[in-house]
Predict the structure.
Amino acid sequence: MRILLIASSYNSLTQRARAELQDHGHAVSVEVTPDGAAVRDAVERHAPDLVVAPMLKAVVPRDVWQSRLCLIVHPGPVGDRGPSSPDWAIHEGAAEWGVTVLQADEEMDAGDVWATVAFPLPAVGKSDLYRNELSDAAMRAVHLAVERVAAGAVPQPQTGQVRARPYFRQEQRRISWEEDTETVLRTLRAADSQPGVLDELLGAEWFLHGGHAEDGLRGEPGELLATRTGAICRATGDGAVWIPELRARTGRGEERACKLPATLALGLAGRLPDLPELPAPVDAPVDAEAGRTWSDIRYREQGPVGVLSFAFPGGAMSTDHCRRLLRAYETACRRPTSVLVLGGQRDFFSNGIHLNVIEAATDPAAESWANINAMNDLVEAVLTTTDRLVVSAIGGNAAAGGVMLALAADEVWCRSGSVLNPHYRRMGLYGSEYWTRSLPRKVGPALAERLTQGARPVSVAAARSMGLVDRIVECGPADFSAEVTRLAARLAAHPAVASRVAAKKAEYEARESLTPLAAHREQELSRMRAIFDDPSAPYHSLRRAFVRKEDPAAGSPDAWDADTAGPADR
């Protein structure tokens, strides 16, 4: 079937829909359609058998849905209507939610139902939920709807109670810091990562992004208590929360501010108070009995298996993130384990360098250079680990240098439903992180060239078939960590582990004698340095457009290249 995907942006769900529908044998085109006119134009040009809208803010014109079957993916159960469905569900503490595939009709979200799938609502941020449980349910619903269309089925009219709710405005997101921690967390999670919660802090207005419970600190409600690796801790009525990121509110007509690690944002504004820095040990307990706290890097052991997990907002890794993770990795490598898992948490693995921190720097070129070198140091440490097996465990999506970090390991395990973007081209970069060694080694030089130049999203199934991924972990997001640990323990118990480690060491030494890692690094970085130091290089405008959330251009993402300011795949 010829399917046209229309979307307001080329977001993670649109990419996943494209990749998975292609895996199912459909001819899939994608168009970014910011308004009804763009929708009409796209449909006229492609003349598809079916139109599917994974994430569409524009209204489908009447003449389009009357002449073509158009399916709308609504992130809510049957009867739910409105533009802020997941926000309301999280804010109200719903235990279960749903995704419904509707036929486009006169009234928004009121069309006949082609498929609906329910899913549990865990205590996570909205963007995490969207990329994981909601995305899984959405794709099950899309596949079911497409199958029903192909079979000539008839959709069902909506019946039962209708609950239409308005756009969730900032006035409704306001936090009263006298409230209990759970209430505050639900408010923060319902706005993460967009639009954030507008609040007053230290004499200025900021959007708060993210929120994690802290049971060990107390203070006057609203008081700032401490900092930890870029985050700030703020007191609630019965505890405290860690807020990892802030974005300054700017006036109408002013350039949108960068979302940044909280202490960096406050420091750049000259408003960072003198607060104690409370580093969390990487082995901090996560169980409720021990008291909740937050750390973006954690390490745990189960017999011969070590698991080094990390969770950085948006999957972006700044110079500081890379250096701290490298120190934790080096510490983990001194432990008596035979298998070391890197990752293993839900949601993003990594998307490479931190474009927001780079954009906010006084000298973005210099910060780009520092960041890519810190990223390379981390990848090199993984590539040169020859005394144990290393497994990269990707629980969510990964892109650019994040994919190359994963490929540095001996095996790459991916949760079903993940999407990989093993390329840099949409950000106008040549790339580094030793991709010129790791990617051809995994998939061969020809396919490595097609992946980096084609700049297309890759489903886990396709990644497995091409050798990019070694194992697909079939489980839900909440079960990924436990399932990876179980599989790693089974790997560690295999009698061939010692011989595999010995063979790995011999292969590394053989490759070093032919083309040393240093040669790959020098060649990649020479290309990257030239881009960073060239003010006219497309990278700088592409980065700015991505960070400042400039409206994406209409058209096919396949037509975007490094000479246009099209959006990145992150």
